[in-house]
Amino acid sequence: QLQLQESGPGLVKPSETLSLTCTVSGGSISSSSYYWGWIRQPPGKELEWIGSIYYSGSTYYNPSLKSRVTISIDTSKNQFSLKLSSVTAADTAVYYCARLRGGSYSKYYFDYWGQGTLVTVSS
Amino acid sequence: DIQMTQSPSTLSASVGDRVTITCRASQSISTWLAWYQQKAGTAPKLLIYKASSLESGVPSRFSGSGSETEFTLTISSLQPDDFATYYCQQYNTYSPYTFGQGTKLEIK
Predict the structure, then answer these.
(1) Does the beta-carbon distance from B87 to A46 stay under 8 Å?
(2) What pLDDT is recorded for position A103?
């Protein structure tokens, strides 16, 4: 059974960089069938897609966050990571990592999710 | 961005009821739509993809329909485990993927 687990600091100071890692178990992150992504959910609000990455390192990001986001992948560790720079209180959210499945016409949806990790931006 | 609008925002229903949640897209997305169920404090769970395809392991009382800009999620006979928040998501374009604001299904 595929499992994803987020890890990283739960508290980040304003203007600093948020860094999270997602460790994948029960499957290979190097599979050509899937993308991997990050989604966040501010408390009490809706879900927002942050960005996604392929095992080759190809990425695509939400234009609203693109200037501050970097997603990378480490196939040797079966992990992928998120960095979000210059954070403010508006970046306080539960951050989820997820697998994207699809393939038809390059249309992908989220089929497995991590449990999520709350990141609070505060001094 | 493609805006996804769900209605209603909150729905009160009883065990055994048939309920329908609507999701409207601001432009045509063909059938590239997914539905998720989220319970408090947990990650979303995929229920339906490609508008009407049931994810493996999801009970058959869940069904989806629609195309272009209007979609529905139907639960044929509500069970106690179904009280949760439901989200639709378009994946016609990844620039960006967008979700609806959610529909909270409450016990009447």
Answers:
(1) yes
(2) 67
